[in-house]
Amino acid sequence: METMRTVAQTILKFRKEIGLSQLKLATEADIALKTLHAAEHAASKLKLGTLEKIAGALGVPIARFFE
User: Fold this and answer.
1) Other C-beta atoms within 10 Å of 2: how many?
2) What CA–CA distance (Å, rounded) separates 37 from 33?
3) What are the tens digits of pLDDT across the range 27-62?
4) Three-state secondary structure readout of 1-27
5) Residue 1: its pLDDT value, please?
6) CA–CA gap between residue 6 and residue 12 (Å, rounded)
7) pTM for the full predicted model
């Protein structure tokens, strides 16, 4: 559970740092807005493919979510 919180906080941090809204990031990552919302609030387990899409849209390696 701690890992999910770390990933959620990191996604939110990166999104805010680059100034994207949730809608814009979800659109760029080609995922549903509710999926991104859940990802940023550690509300559900994420599939690796979803994390890859979010990382790609943020322009960061997926490993950065786990630091």
Assistant:
1) 7
2) 6
3) 999 999 999 999 999 988 889 999 999 999 999 999
4) CHHHHHHHHHHHHHHHHCCCCHHHHHH
5) 64
6) 10
7) 0.92
Provide CB contacts within 8 A for 33, sequence distance 6+: 22, 23, 26
The residue to which tokens 């809204």 are assigned:
21
Block residue for tokens 């740092």: 17
Which pLDDT value is given to residue 66? 85
Give burial (CB, 10 Å; 0-12/13-18/19+) of 3: exposed
67 burial class (0-12, 13-18, 19+ CB within 10 angstroms)?
exposed
Angle between helices 33-40 and 22-29 (to 10 degrees): 110
Indicate the residue type of 26.
Answer: A
